[in-house]
């Protein structure tokens, strides 16, 4: 079993068995009420990775050969709280892999995009299009996290393992 992970609260996990995509799951998250209210008067809500459920998703899969994780980086225009939250989730994913003794490789976004999306726009919408081209039977919908988890896992299988 190979797993591709798009970290972050809107990310996902893609599972491959013998090089074939078998399932994709949204990143398990918990919704937390924050302090204060939004401009519309609603209570502020933010999400954090559900560490226990993520660990269970990885622990219950037997024979995990390798995990490919998109390498974390700060994004232009992203505020400090969002960057901090993303980096914490990224660290949680790596820590769970270490704790479960699952080997992993970090893959820079530009690296897998260059290899899998040649001659395509490199935006989130293009990731969805490309994933639907490669994995027409997978439930991707309009979720770029699912698409990117599939592409990250596929990149690892094809370009790092060379299968």
Question: How would you characterize this protein structure?
Answer:
By secondary structure, the protein is an alpha/beta fold. The chain has one domain (2-160): Ribonuclease H-like superfamily/Ribonuclease H (Nucleotidyltransferase, domain 5, 2-Layer Sandwich), CATH 3.30.420. Helices cover 40% and strands 26% of the residues. The chain has 5 helices and 7 strands; from the N terminus they run βββββαβαβααα. The strands form 2 sheets. Strands 3-2-1-6-7 form a 5-stranded mixed beta sheet. It has a two-stranded antiparallel ribbon with strand order 4-5. Strand 4 (29-37) and strand 5 (43-49) form a beta hairpin. The longest helix has 20 residues, at 80-99. The protein is globular. The model has no long low-confidence stretch (mean pLDDT 89).
Describe the SSE topology:
Elements: E1 2-6, E2 12-17, E3 20-26, E4 29-37, E5 43-49, H1 51-59, E6 66-70, H2 80-99, E7 104-107, H3 109-116, H4 124-134, H5 144-160
Parallel strand pairs: 1-6, 6-7
Antiparallel strand pairs: 1-2, 2-3, 4-5
Helix pairs in contact: 1-2, 3-5, 4-5
What are the salient characteristics of this protein?
163 residues; alpha/beta; 5 helices; 40% helix
The number of distinct helices, counting runs of at least 4 residues, comes to: 5
* Overall pLDDT: 89
By CATH, the topology is Nucleotidyltransferase, domain 5
- Helical content (DSSP H or I, runs of 4+): 25-40%
Which structural class best describes the helix and strand composition? alpha/beta
Number of strands: 7
Shape: globular
Taken as a percent bin, the fraction of beta residues is 25-35%
With strands numbered from the N-terminus, the spatial order across the biggest sheet is 3-2-1-6-7
- Sheet with the most strands, sense and barrel status: 5 strands, mixed
């Amino acid at each position: 079993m190979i797993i591709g992970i798009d970290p972050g609260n809107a990310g996902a996990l893609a599972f491959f068995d013998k090089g074939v995509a078998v399932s994709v799951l949204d990143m398990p998250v918990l919704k937390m009420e924050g302090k204060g209210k939004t401009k519309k008067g609603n209570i502020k809500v933010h999400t954090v990775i559900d560490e226990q459920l993520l660990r269970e998703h990885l622990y219950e899969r037997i024979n995990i050969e390798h995990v490919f994780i998109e390498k974390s980086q700060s994004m232009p225009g992203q505020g400090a709280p969002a960057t901090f939250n993303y980096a914490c989730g990224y660290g949680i994913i790596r820590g769970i892999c270490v704790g479960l003794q699952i080997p992993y490789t970090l893959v820079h976004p530009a690296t897998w995009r260059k290899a899998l999306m040649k001659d395509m726009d490199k935006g989130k919408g293009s990731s969805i299009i490309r994933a639907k081209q490669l994995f027409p039977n997978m439930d991707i919908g309009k979720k770029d996290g699912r698409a990117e988890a599939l592409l990250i896992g596929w990149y690892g299988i094809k370009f790092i393992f060379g299968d």
